[in-house]
């Protein structure tokens, strides 16, 4: 019985200590999506990704146009060709379709790879700036309050403007 009483007292003290420690924690928030959308580096990266996407789209579109022209030509000439030649042509069309699908997949992968390559230094810069401002202002935690982040704010310190200033814009 004495041990149980001691255990209960220890638990109450531990819980009370944790509550006191939590009351001392300083938390701020930032809107990372808004911050990144306004960064000049992000705008440049988006423009480069868009340019790359348009390049791939143009190449794929011209290949698709070539496929359509060939398919139409082969369809018009089908009656005058042998079954063997028509089968070869059908196989050629299927091969072109497969090549277009593969080109679309490669384009999507290359665009994603480029996006990650361009975003990595930007994300590092943002993270470093958030940590710097958080430490300067004495915050223990800085939470992303962007839409969809799962953070619901009642009030608190928003350091978005301070981080923008630290980044020079």
TrEMBL record:
Residues 1-23 form the signal peptide. SUPFAM superfamilies: OmpH-like. One of its GO terms (molecular function) is unfolded protein binding. GO terms for biological process: protein stabilization. Residues 57-113 form a coiled coil. One of its GO terms (cellular component) is cytosol. Keywords: Coiled coil, Signal. Pfam families: OmpH (PF03938). It comes from the Bacteria. This is OmpH family outer membrane protein. It comes from Robertkochia marina.
């Amino acid at each position: 019985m004495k041990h149980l009483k001691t255990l209960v007292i220890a638990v109450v003290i531990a819980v009370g200590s944790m509550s006191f420690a939590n009351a001392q924690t300083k938390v701020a928030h930032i809107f990372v999506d808004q911050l990144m959308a306004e960064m000049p580096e992000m705008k440049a990266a988006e423009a480069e990704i868009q340019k790359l996407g348009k390049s791939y789209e143009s190449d794929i579109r011209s290949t698709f146009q070539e496929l359509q022209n060939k398919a139409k030509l082969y369809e018009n000439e089908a009656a005058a060709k042998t079954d063997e030649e028509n089968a070869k042509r059908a196989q050629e069309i299927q091969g072109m379709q497969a090549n277009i699908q593969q080109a679309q997949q490669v384009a999507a992968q290359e665009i994603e790879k480029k996006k990650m390559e361009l975003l990595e230094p930007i994300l590092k810069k943002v993270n470093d700036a958030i940590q710097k401002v958080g430490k300067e202002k004495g915050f223990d935690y800085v939470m992303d309050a962007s839409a969809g982040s799962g953070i619901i704010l009642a009030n608190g310190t928003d350091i978005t403007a301070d981080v923008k200033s630290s980044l020079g814009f």
